[in-house]
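User: Fold this one for me? It's Tetratricopeptide (TPR) repeat protein.
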Amino acid sequence: MEQQQVVQVRSETLGSPSEKTFGSGYLIAPRLVLTSAHLLPPDEPADITVSLPDDTGAFPARVRWRRHDEIVDAALLEIPRTARDWPTPTTLRGAPYRHPQRWGRCVTGGTEMRATATGFPRQERTTSRRNQTALVGRVRPHGGAKFEILDDIGLLQTDVSGLGAEKAASTTPWSGMSGAAVFLFGEKLLLGVVRADRLPRQGTRLSYTRSDDLLACADFRAVVRAATGVDPRLEAAEFVGLLEPAPPRRNVLSPIMLLRADAEVVSFHGRQDTLADLEEWCLTDPYGPLAVRVLTAPGGQGKTRLARQLMARMRDRGWVVGQVSHEPRDLHALRTVQYPLLLVVDYAETRPELVRKLREQTREARHPVRLLLLARSLGSWQTRATGALPETRLHALSPGATDQQEAFRTAVRDISRHLAAVVGGPDVDWPALADAVVAARPVAGPGVQTALMVQMEALAALLRHVRPTQRDGRTLEDELLDHERTYWQETADGWGMGPRGTKLLEPAVAAAVLCPAHDEHEARATIERLLPGEPPGHLTDITAWLRDLYPPPEGRHWGRLEPDRLAEYHASQQIVADRGLLRRLFGRAPDHQRVQTLTVLARSAVAHTNQGRAATAHTVMELLREALRSVPAYAPLTATVLRAHSDALPEQSHVLRDHALDVARELSRLCHATGDTPQARRDRAWALHNLAERHRAVGEWQGAREAAAAAAALREGLADGGSLTHRTEWADSLLVLSHACRMTGRLMEAYDAGDRALNLFRALAQEDGEEGEKRERGLVRALINQSQAVWQLDPGAMPFDQTARSDDHTEEAVRRARALVSRRRHPELDPLLLVRALTERGTNLWRLRRHPEALALGEEAVQASRRLAEENPDAYTADLARALMGLAVDYGTASRPRGEAMALEREAIGLLRPLAGELPAVHRSTLAQTLHNLALGLSQEGDDAAARECIQEAIEHRRTLARDPHGVAVPGLAHSVSVLATFHERTGDDAAAAEGFEEALEIYANAPLPLDASNLNAQSGTALDLARAYDALGRPTEAAAPLGQALAIRRRLSEYAPSLYAEGYATSLHDGSYLYWKHGRPIAERILLRQALPHHRRMSRGSEEGREWLAICLHDLGTSYARSSVTADRAVPALREAYELRVELAARDARYEAGLADTCAELTRALLRTSRFRDCVPVAEHAVRLRRELLVADPEGQEQPLCYDLLRLAEAQAMAGHTEAAWRTVCAAEKPCRELTDRPGRSPAQNAMLLHQLAHAVSLCGRHDWSRAVRAVEPARRAARIFRELADQDPHQAGAHAGLNSAVTLLARVLDRIGRHDEAFEAQVRRGA
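Assistant: Here's what I get for Tetratricopeptide (TPR) repeat protein.
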């Protein structure tokens, strides 16, 4: 209560001077008085005046609101603006919203509370005035239908002199106290307004109208809101020492204070979906157990403001709400709350013990209890606080340019309404200035901005018009801090510090940010550490100045710069500018200051990173790590400090990784010698688990494995008792151990640990009780881990049906992760878990060759991880890069334009390069794989130089990784070396290609770990490539060994997993048969084709593509048979089956017609060779029809095959006795054959063969007519001449000599057939010369 605001209220009914009343009142705003309604005439016009107790002047007042009934007896009187000489009390001067009245209510069923009311009772009447009297009594929370102030002793005599009989009869000692405000004793919480004296036989009992009944009146609230600018809010009287004041803190002294969330200067904007979700969370299951949720987001995202908005909504629903400020000595009153309760804990990551106690004290409450925790991120703090928590991750407020512009407009206009009271400027037209600032702002880009960033920009834009500052190359934070320095300087001048003192202001403000002080002694000690050697007078002045600079919260000697983002920025800038500042402050600081210093600077490093100031972030971290290393021996770091700080660190952060490991190492060392009690062992296990996690974050896999193994062993012992929590912790450590074992090459151990973790989590997920969602999330992580682990095993170590369970695992992981999100009906809940489940599901589908199913999952993963990375690049950039790489693979397998996939890969590489440069053990492998993939895409696009450069960079990274003794990265190196060799092969450098393939196979052979199925498949592919390279170099005998190696591996893989590798084995057999065909080894060729045939038959049952491959295999096998007269009969069934398959395929899809035409041609040839002329004719006719159709779209490719098909048709018709049809066909072929052979640029060998075939067909079809048969001479002679020339050019070319022999024989036969025997003999002698 403010005594200056107590007033006297007088009322006189106009026309009835005897009808006068006198009472008390209280100013709740500069010109608004709260009093009792019964003091005022109900209907008649009256002369109402208000006067201050020490002033004889009476000022007119008018009734703004009144209500008088059984529940409420209260009124609001307003002193009009026309009363210009009204002396506003000093406690209410300034803007009315700076000192909003606080309103209280009793919310428990507990003991009585002390209360006070100050007024002007009759017994204090003198001849000239009435004096104030403060009644100190007690109120009973929920003490019955009447609400009273009780005082067992305070019975006073009643002075009724000068009163009439009737008036005297109704007068009591406390007459005149009506309308007095009732306050919680010693606090500023208004509980109600005095109504009447209950006239007890002993002591005092004054009834009063409760504040909660007043605020239940909407019109009452409207009047108060209009007068104060603030909506009145009820607070719990019993928890005044626990909860923050409810009204916004509008007593701002500098521009930056307008940005505080608790000032509520800028209207609440957006977040309606999240707000509705949280409100539903509060209201769902009202009779269920205590519910806890954590709201996470980087600083400045709007967590606190959203929580305040939620509290306002729930307060309107009758809930007891409040933000916990600090822990009082006794929290037992929480157990007796008579209403639903919502408690908000800000900075929960730094206050886990408080959260735990709140939870314990509210667990047995009879009404719904909700704890909403606000934190920068999840971390180990949640384990100490409550265990696992449902997380609502607060996304950025304004992702779109239009939304950003609207948020900026709102911020400018709201801030401008309050800025005049802070910076002055009576001549400034603030509304016009706000409109000008909004109009001048450039349209925001597509980037994501936090709510605080938008408001900072708005404030800076307004201040530029009244306080111009330098802007070139400066950050927004620097610009705003420049304005704040003006405030510092002005207040320092008031203290008369002088030039020397003003130089110390900035480090002093930083010290207040880093080192909160509980009392004056601690504050003075902090400043002495900060400024050693300064005169005592300066130290005293600066300590006092800091206390006055920013209002201190309860329990603190000084406040600090806010909002946090600017405070953290300023503190970090100061420690960078003065490298000794941190060491001076930290070295001898008490524990709570050390925790604050570590937390603030760690947060500042993350903020610098996310704003693109990586160099500053690294400098801050270097100084922070150095401060930890250089603490004096007489003031060592304690486990309490390190645990509190470790709990506040985010679960993943790139910039904090090394610092977090430093903390974890020291904490584990301190916990190692804490005894052998169950709690000591649990603490030691936690420290080891935390150490393992931090080792993993920096890629120290061996350290991670050792720590995780020790943690798992300890937790296994603790879990023997069957506690859900202990078993969950054990399963967590087994998961970390599994991952660390995989990264250190202990693959079977990784599988076993992961399998134990999976079984544990699966059983735990079935259990009821608390932390159910933690166990479900653990199950999702275990499913993902086991899917990864099983694919790294040697195929001989695990049957494929076990490996294939990864399909079920990843499907279940995605399903459960989605359920965790949908159960809480909000898309931003626990998003990274779903991203990782989606990514692993997509990868697993790729392994299982189910590519189409993976694309949508990959796109969803990228969309989610992109948003996370935009909001917190430090934490989530690597996750985005991995998602981009996976989606690029999905694009490639989905036949999307290659450019789209390459764009994703380039983006991922851009993100990964700096990460891999700083943390190669973690990110280099992902960078190398992405470069590898991009190189393949560039090669497909024909950019050979860029592809080679890209794959060489990948190889360099993988050579470095392969030096790791665990050997995990060795197969990747072999794969990249093999890809470089294929690039050499494509550019015609077969020697370099062979050398590369040899190196790759040697790397595979010397790999320290057994190769998994995927790497075995890659190894076999390299062996096949080497065989082809040897063949290209003319070293066919050397090709046999790598070909045999490839076939042996693929046979093994085909037996291991037929669904995945049978096709590859069949393809390899096919490829090998081609090599044998090239080198004239038909028997070996047919053996491989026959081995491939059953695999192709199996694959043909499931797909159209499989049937096409079966047709190809039959085609090639039949063609091979047909080349030899000995096996020609076996050719026809194979080619006939191929023909029927391709007829079926072509009927469904015209793409298969070219293959059908080829099979028709080969089947025609086989039927001719086996003298099945009548069967041959329809097949040959079909071939001709197909070729003519294909000729339209592909004249160059189909012209020669058509000529041959026509010639074979003519031959079949002739041999089948269709003489005239045969002649017509051969005549139709003659012209295109001659045109084709006369065309420049064709190969002589091709011309010779076509002429030879033409001559044979003309001679055969015209054998019964000399005039027809003679037309065969010219093409026969030309064919013989060309073959002669080819044989002369290369005497060792067996093909040319064989062709020459055949051509000479045909020429002699043609000449003999037309009776030119001498010429026939001469042709044989001269052999085409």
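One thing worth pointing out: The two ends are 129 Å apart (CA to CA).
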